[in-house]
């Protein structure tokens, strides 16, 4: 039976434009003939903000909601005050579409660079909470701009929000061969949120006797991510810690240009959104140096989410083969073309 995928595309800013073009090429090439792709591009980001002062309107949010999934490049530009686009567009989307599971796999592909000695066997996934924590915008400042300024940024952690993401992480750990789940937090200092997370983690864990668990404070977790990353299988953590440790995870497992992510709404009430872990990289935008592989691997997560498992594997296999043979530096387009040829052939 034929099927149509309705995909919203938000290239965004900087290298987002460049890498999304490659991701779309690969996606188009990998789909079987009986799956039709309908894309609608949303020109959101810095240019739009400069032209209209808008980041994301309610009408656009409603249009986006109608799609099966969203592919996003990156948001943020030095010409826009920091936070305006990140909060007003990217986080607004994640919150509005209840993307409470921010899935960030880390794998050390063959022939990729790692600063770690001995090429450890890195293959873990971070389940980062995506709708709470200090990112909710629960803050403010008084006496702003004076030497007496006081600024707050409150981390919001609800029993409901913590439990649902912890449950998702247990289910993922249960489904993986090693069946191991690590909670990363800082409950020796952030005692209120930390204890909610730890108590929830322990309680839900009773339902998963086959899953081995451990707990690490986030500072110690950064040591192990460098010294012994092979110890990790599934990590569950809050929004801020997850943001930070997944950039570190990317750096030790082939670089930020390979790190994919999915902002998942597991219930399917809203479209899930797939994007590379990296940002808009203004330092290399327009140079052709951006590696589109992270976006292509995000396309694989998108395909898997839509039930196209064989196609997801084809994309991942193409990346593995391409990285194994990748010798000289190549441009964004060249990498995208090579991956397109591989998935098509
Ligand atoms: N999901 C998103 O849309 C995100 C947006 N941002 C925004 O992006 C802007 C730049 O943020 P930064 O902190 O500089 O982080 P960034 O991830 O854009 O760049 C950090 C470093 O990684 C390099 N890099 C990033 N992606 C790469 C790729 N595909 N290939 C090769 N090198 C790559 C950059 O050149 C830079 O040296 C800011 O406005 C920030 O708020 C940052 C992170 C995520
Ligand atoms: C720009 C932030 C809102 C997001 C971020 O850094 C991330 O999700 O990795
Ligand atoms: Mg980040």
UniProtKB/TrEMBL annotation:
Its cofactor is Mn(2+); Mg(2+). Its EC number is 1.1.1.85. It is found in: Cytoplasm. Signal peptide: none annotated. It catalyses: (2R,3S)-3-isopropylmalate + NAD(+) = 4-methyl-2-oxopentanoate + CO2 + NADH. InterPro entries: ICDH/IPMDH, IsoCit/isopropylmalate_DH_CS, IsoPropMal-DH-like_dom, LeuB_actb. Pathway: Amino-acid biosynthesis; L-leucine biosynthesis; L-leucine from 3-methyl-2-oxobutanoate: step 3/4. Mg(2+) binds at residues 219, 243, 247. Keywords: Amino-acid biosynthesis, Branched-chain amino acid biosynthesis, Cytoplasm, Leucine biosynthesis, Magnesium, Manganese, Metal-binding, NAD, Oxidoreductase. NCBIfam families: PRK03437.1 (NF002898). Belongs to the isocitrate and isopropylmalate dehydrogenases family. LeuB type 2 subfamily. HAMAP family: LeuB_type2. This is 3-isopropylmalate dehydrogenase. It comes from Streptomyces ovatisporus. The lineage of its organism: Bacteria, Bacillati, Actinomycetota, Actinomycetes, Kitasatosporales. The gene is leuB.
């Amino acid at each position: 039976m034929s099927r149509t995928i309705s995909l919203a595309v938000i290239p965004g800013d900087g290298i987002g434009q460049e890498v999304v073009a490659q991701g779309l090429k690969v996606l188009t090439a990998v789909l079987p003939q009986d799956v039709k792709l309908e894309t609608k591009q949303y020109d959101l980001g810095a240019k739009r903000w400069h032209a209209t002062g808008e980041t994301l309107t309610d009408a656009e949010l409603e249009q986006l909601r109608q799609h099966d999934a969203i592919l996003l490049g990156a948001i943020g530009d030095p010409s826009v005050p920091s936070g305006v686009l990140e909060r007003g567009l990217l986080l607004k989307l994640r919150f509005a579409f209840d993307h409470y599971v921010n899935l960030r796999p880390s794998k050390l592909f063959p022939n990729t660079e790692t600063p770690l000695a001995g090429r450890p066997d890195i293959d873990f996934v971070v389940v980062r909470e995506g709708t709470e924590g200090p990112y909710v915008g629960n803050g403010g400042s008084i006496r702003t701009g004076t030497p007496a300024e006081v600024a707050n940024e409150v981390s919001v952690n609800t029993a409901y929000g913590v439990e649902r993401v912890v449950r998702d992480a247990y289910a993922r750990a249960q489904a993986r061969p090693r069946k191991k789940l690590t909670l990363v937090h800082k409950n020796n200092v952030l005692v209120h949120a930390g204890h909610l997370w730890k108590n929830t983690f322990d309680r839900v864990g009773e339902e998963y006797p086959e899953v081995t668990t451990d707990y690490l404070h986030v500072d110690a977790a950064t040591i192990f991510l460098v010294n012994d990353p092979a110890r990790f299988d599934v990590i569950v953590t809050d929004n801020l810690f997850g943001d930070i440790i997944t950039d570190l995870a990317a750096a030790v497992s082939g670089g930020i240009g390979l790190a994919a992510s999915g902002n998942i709404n597991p219930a399917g009430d809203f479209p899930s959104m797939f994007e590379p872990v990296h940002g808009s990289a203004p330092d290399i935008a327009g140079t052709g140096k951006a590696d589109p592989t992270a976006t292509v691997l995000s396309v694989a997560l998108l395909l898997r989410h839509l039930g196209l498992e064989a196609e997801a594997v084809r994309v991942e296999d193409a990346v593995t083969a391409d990285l194994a043979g990748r010798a000289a530096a190549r441009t964004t387009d060249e990498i995208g073309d090579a991956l397109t040829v591989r998935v098509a052939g």
